[in-house]
Write a structure and sequence with these properties.
With 408 residues, the chain is an all-alpha fold. It is built from 17 helices and no strands.
């Protein structure tokens, strides 16, 4: 692979800019990245074109512009696939994984599996065992759970556990996912058994997944009336949150909301109210997900059961307002889907990919055929030269024989 020195340096500068904004607002990176992409295009540098599309796709996904994210990821993958540069394998693999995740959020599960399988194909071709395990053991299981194929998720998990050599980090993930599947099938005993299996491992190995294990155990203990155990697991979950950097406020919010619910069931109303209000402090105002606004419904019911009708009405109104915003967001997602026609976009991508692969196969066949022709020609030439040499030797030998046998 030959890189343009100037492009390589400029690309490093773009990545440095991205790292400055990582974890915050990424929008200031967009225009410089777009300008760099255009420069890479003008120099027909496939390596940097692919990398630029990947970076822009990632930024658009993290600035909630999913339509543009999909388009840039698809273009990145298409350009990368047109190259035989092995250094782009990981980029193309990551693009396909990210596309699968976005498409699953849009509930395009068939497409999600298709891109996830494409990522798996690349991982297998490059013998990337870490990626293979992640694609099968985490991503694929996640999509099965999202599309409510719980029995299939359980079968896949059992197959992975029984046939692969797994570390404890992966076992925490798989037993937790298996527990979730059983929970959705109303098999709470089996769910609890699997959550318990996940909880025996070291929380430091996979703190974010371990947090969910504790929350799931707390949920079932609450349903079974084991309130002391539920509170114990919630307190343990609170200790785990600082071990990972993502979504800490949301994790604390969920702990406080669940703790409020347990105290409410115990009729510790003052304690329940305290935890409800602590939970409210952790709400991300920019996040319209149902994880947050459902608490207003909880508070409405909480005050209603205490005959505080004014407060009950206040929180019921808040719940209705946030539900309307949530439904509006879902409508926006549907409209975005129609605007970009995700199905058509992705089908066109796979069509282009198929054509590109056919071209590559044809080139390889032509190269093999050309090689064969060259070998045949070389064989013929060698034979002809050999024949000429042998003829000359025969003539010389015969001349010598004539000489030896001559009577003159």
């Amino acid at each position: 692979m030959v890189l343009s020195k100037d492009l390589s340096v400029e690309y490093d500068e773009i990545i440095a800019l991205y790292k400055e904004h990582k974890g915050g607002d990424l929008s200031p990176v967009i225009e410089p990245a777009k300008a760099f992409l255009e420069q890479a295009k003008s120099e027909r540098d496939i390596f940097h074109i692919t990398k630029s599309y990947f970076l822009l796709g990632y930024i658009y996904a993290h600035t909630n512009d999913y339509g543009k994210a999909i388009i840039h990821y698809l273009e990145g993958s298409r350009n990368g696939e047109s190259s035989d540069d092995p250094e782009l394998n990981q980029t193309i693999l990551s693009i396909n994984k990210n596309l699968a995740l976005i498409l699953s959020d849009y509930k395009h599960y068939d497409l999600a599996h298709r891109f996830n399988n494409k990522a798996l194909e690349i991982a297998e071709e490059t013998d990337n065992q870490k990626e293979i395990l992640e694609i099968i053991g985490i991503n694929r299981i996640h999509y099965y759970l999202e599309e409510e194929k719980f029995e299939l998720a359980i079968q896949e998990i059992d197959s992975i556990i029984n046939n692969l050599d797994l570390d404890e980090k992966m076992l925490i993930n798989l037993y937790n996912k298996k527990g979730i599947a059983f929970e959705h099938l109303d098999e709470l005993n089996l769910a609890y058994t699997n959550f318990s299996k996940a909880s025996i491992y070291d929380q430091n190995l996979n703190p974010e997944e371990y947090y969910h294990v504790l929350m799931n155990l707390a949920f079932i203990d609450t349903e079974w009336g084991n309130y002391d155990l539920a509170l114990k697991n919630l307190n343990e979950a609170r200790k785990v949150v600082p071990l990972f950097y993502k979504n800490q406020n949301k994790m604390y919010f969920l702990i406080e909301r669940r703790t409020a619910d347990v105290n409410f069931r115990l009729k510790n109303y003052a304690e329940a109210e305290k935890h409800f209000f602590t939970a409210l402090d952790y709400i991300d105002k920019s996040d319209r997900s149902s994880d947050y606004f459902e608490i207003y419904k909880d508070l409405s019911e909480f005050y209603f059961l205490q005959n505080n009708l004014d407060k009950a009405l206040e929180y019921k109104t808040l719940y209705s307002d946030h539900l309307a915003l949530y439904l509006e967001q879902q409508k926006e997602i549907e409209e975005l889907d129609k605007k970009y026609n995700i199905d058509l976009l992705t089908e066109r991508y796979f069509d282009l990919l198929s054509v590109n692969q056919e071209k590559k196969a044809a080139v390889r066949t032509a190269q093999i055929s050309l090689g064969s022709v060259i070998l045949i020609l070389l064989g013929i030439i060698f034979y002809m030269v050999y024949q000429k040499v042998r003829t000359k030797r025969d003539i010389k030998r015969k001349l010598l024989e004539i000489d030896f046998n001559s009577e003159v």
